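From: lab user (bench 3)
To: helpdesk
Subject: output format question, protein + zinc ion

Hello, I'm new to running complex predictions and I'm not sure whether the block I got back is the full result or only part of it. Here's what I submitted:
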Amino acid sequence: MRQVKIFDTTLRDGEQSPGCSMNLSEKIIIARQLDKLGVDIIEAGFATASPMDFKSVQAIASSVTNCTVASLARANKNDIDQAWDAVKQAAHPRIHLFIATSDVHMKYKLRMTRDQVLNTISEMTAYAKSKCDDIEFSAEDASRSDREFLAQCVSTAIAAGAKTVNIPDTVGYSTPQEMGELIDYLIKNVPSIASENITVSVHCHNDLGMGVANSLASVKAGATQVECTINGIGERAGNASLEEIVMALRTRRDFYDADTNIDTRQIYKSSKLLSNIIGVPISPTKPIVGANAFAHEAGIHQHGVITNAQTYEIMNPDEIGVPHRALVLGKHSGKHALRERLESMGYEINDEELEDIFIRFKKLADQKKTITSSDLEALTLHNSKIVQETKENAAPLCQIAGHVVNSASETPCVSYVKIKRDNEFLEDIAMGAGPLDAAFKAINHMLGVEARLEDFSVRAVTDGEDSIGEAVVKISSNGEMYTGSGISTDIIDASLQAYISGINKIFEEGR
Ligand code: KIV
Ligand code: ZN
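Helpdesk reply: Thanks, we reran it on our side. This is the complete output you should expect:
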């Protein structure tokens, strides 16, 4: 069976899409989870894009132990130098070099001739190779490039030292048949792919909804690396989704004769963690990780699944780490039971984190009749200790210590908020167009922050009248966007928790 490498670009192609940005500690949390998930390569960022990007690639390089860490670089010396400086601490560093090879990109974006592009590939791949042994070359817009010229580019990159050649469908234009034929063509027409044992990779965007299908067709044709993102986040309509590719290969090994190193039991948790951090919910019908992916509504289906799961289930939800929805714990459950349950859901937590979650669990158990896996998941994902775990010199965390929020049919509304920062208490009253607007204004005023609410949502995490509400806010400050989230059985409280968690991120960034 062929082994397909998973190259995860959630922290680069995924993170650069609007609404998906993460701060340094969030990126490290995701990188560690990706390492646990078993991805072969993490593309940690684009080191030259900004000093912050450089810092996060560097931090990720020294935070993960198993997988290769790559930085993206354009084909110029400055980008390559910065990429190398950022990844060189990694146990397995990689420089991912790219240049466009389609006529339209060369003419209008690069303003270079084919010969100039070929020379640049040769010189810059060799330059990168002089620093780092593991070089990946990407031919941007490969699927719209002239095939013969693309083969020349690939061959030149290999001759100059690239070990992996990546064939992106940059604008999501290709069809599965075309993508498969392109990979087949390159394998047959670039002899060094076979003679040098080169990894052929694909990177498919999802503009026409074919990112996953195109990636799988490429694997069928001989590609042995796939570039993808958790939940399919990425530029425009996103990148091919990791969980769909991995589970298609696993479930249809008979067809693809290929598998990955992914620990599939970590898939669900990885998906939830990312969704929670970036504040982008997962569509209920999303394959593999959507809330409805294993829900059988129709009576005939339910009967079939109860009698024998194989009647309507092609995958076992346990294999993906989907927690059992049944009632799990109650008011009298102890710490031991809580830890066991969390571990069975894939959360490895230390004693300090357990202590924190246990306090919140007990508080929740007083408010809610039953505590389900979804409740525990929400408690754990919102556990401040876990989110804080990577922060050195963390800014004093502000917490909501109390509030009186009034809703009235006549505006303006008036709200009072009390905050605990370190050991001091602050309080303020403000007026606003609505009760939350007033409360958020009070928070901004007492903490002296310039912040604007850009987006806000509240949803129920579980079913029932005593469900936990999860609030997500997107706040802008100094041109940056921050995501905050909070949970509570009271949606006003959840909203204030979300807002203060976004504000804490602004403080954290300022250090
Ligand atoms: O979509 C694309 O072509 C890319 C490359 C930089 C690999 O993201
Ligand atoms: Zn891309």
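A quick orientation on your result: Residues 220 and 256 are 6 Å apart (CA to CA). Let us know if anything else is unclear.
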